[in-house]
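Before our next group meeting I need something from you. Please put the record directly below this note.
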Amino acid sequence: MSRIKTFLFILIFLFYSEKTLYADHHKVQVDDAIVVESDFDLEKTYGTSSDLKDIDPMEGINRKVWDFNLGLDKALVRPVTQGYVDVIPDPLRRGLGNAIDNFFTTPQYFINNVLQGKFVGAYNTLARFVVNSTFGLGGFIDIGDKMGLQERPENFGDTLGVWGWKKSNYVQIPFKGPQTTRDVVGFVGDIFTDPLILIGGLPLWGNLVKSAGTAVDDRQETLGVLQEIENTSLDFYSSIRSMYVQKRIDEIESDELSTYQNYIND
């Protein structure tokens, strides 16, 4: 009985630690965040800092796909995500997001760290998976981060960038949003690191549920900031294009995930 009480005490403590840590997670403050392409210096990679037309040769088609994706987001994805955020407490959402990441991204992160020769990152990824899957209740609680085992996110698009594919055209993919041609190729490679494929896959309905769940989990991270960018941008499409391209460059160079919040209010 004493062991059960001790376990419950630890669980409650960690739960409220997560609650305190992420209490302000979705609060976004943006002051005069009108974002234009000249705010971003891409000269190091693309040889220009004033015009992105050379990396968006299919802008006409991309804008049509953008309009479709934006309409879908406003009609379906955003309301569903907002309802999820309003109904599910933040600590529980964070825990579910942690568990999803722990299971679905570990093979991708581990393999791509190895392919890039980042063996410390590969070790951290494996160690985080072991610790979070056991002491973290299947990844629900990020014990690894509390132990100093920081997440080392890498995908095959990052690997291609590290291998030398620096310049890449910007594209809009239906249902998926902004990408680069390098990341489209990388996405195909990452399919083979999906644990559902590695263990034999799921029926179609199972993959649809998984895709919907991960989409909502990803979208909740950008609810506030994307709304602010849309409200204050002269051209929402151009702003997201500039920010996304710079975001991907920074992620490849820094080995850390970046957010749109990093590129406003500068």
